Amino acid sequence: MRMPDVNPAFPRKPFNARGSKVSRCENCRLPETCCICSALRHTQAAADFWLLMHHNEFYKPSNTGRLILQSFPSAGISEWQRLSMATEFEVLLQQRPGDACLVFPEAPDYSHRMVRDVSELSARPLFIIPDGTWRQARRIFRHSAYLQDLPVIEPEVLQHSRYFLRKSDTEHHLCTAEVAVALLEQLGDREGAEVLMHNFRLFNEGYYASKGRNLQVAEAPPA
């Protein structure tokens, strides 16, 4: 089944932060002089992804969730709503009973819902990723009654995040694209993980280049 195409081009408020006057590519959201679209790779992953995106993320050029959509044709997206599901998301859950799995770190109060081995997943899992800042993602996870019966999986974090465009207070927190890479690696989908990591690397390099910075300097360990 092909997930519905959703165009997240309708933010509730304009993007007025630093860089809002820059002429940007409508697809990768990088400045047109640093567009990476022609170099992006695409493939069919071993899983499907659906982003429940906080409305603030729709207009942030630093968002990495869109890389999942650009990498995998079957990926989909809808804006998170606290009290109800977007129609396309509700239809998807009805069509994929037993496939959906919510992606979030483990905690004691829902440990009974945790999937601890990927062999417990369906043949083609549907990973639902809350997309936003850590605080926003936690709100999506905690405040959506319609998500409370879904199984939950925590990605295996094998290395520190390589995303330097935003700062996290917690070292093991990954950005949205890195979360999807980790899940695909757990499934043994090396090609899917490599394609998304390739696109993620291009995005980081393009973003840093647009600011006149060197990504290698950010990635270098402290002396």
UniProtKB/TrEMBL annotation:
Enzyme Commission (EC) number: 2.5.1.25
Domain DTW, first and last residues per copy: 21-212
Domain of life according to the entry: Bacteria
Top class in the EC scheme: transferase
Biological processes, Gene Ontology terms: tRNA processing
UniProt entry tagged with the keyword Transmembrane helix: no
Keyword Nucleotide-binding: no
Coiled coil (residue ranges): none
Record organism: Nitrincola lacisaponensis
Keywords: S-adenosyl-L-methionine, Transferase, tRNA processing
Protein name: tRNA-uridine aminocarboxypropyltransferase
One Pfam family here: DTW
Single GO MF descriptor: tRNA-uridine aminocarboxypropyltransferase activity
